[in-house]
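Async update (no meeting this week)

Hi team, since we skipped the sync, here's where things stand on the single-chain job. The sequence we agreed to prioritize is pasted below, unchanged from the tracker. I ran it this morning and attached the output directly underneath so nobody has to dig for it. Comments welcome in thread, and please keep replies under the output.
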Amino acid sequence: MASRPEIKVNKPAPVEEAAQEAPNQRAKKEAGNYRLQVDRQTKAFYMTEEAAQAAGLLIKKGHPIVQVSIYNSAEGINKIIELPGA
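Output:
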């Protein structure tokens, strides 16, 4: 009887646990006390309230229907941005 040829299987090297984590489930790194929120979803972090206000105003001008707010995590205050003259 003829012998079978030997088949070699290469197994991948074990992957570290941190690399197996899905990219959308990683914790976001906070870079500032001021959070820009659009319809109650955090979109960005800012170091100063003025920078967050400027970015929020641009979003509000482009999309006046959405709710844009700035959350100050140090003081726990949420400030809603409205268009000037509205």
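Quick observations from my side:
The chain is about 20% helix and 25% strand.
Helices lie at 17-20, 49-62.
Reply here if anything looks off.
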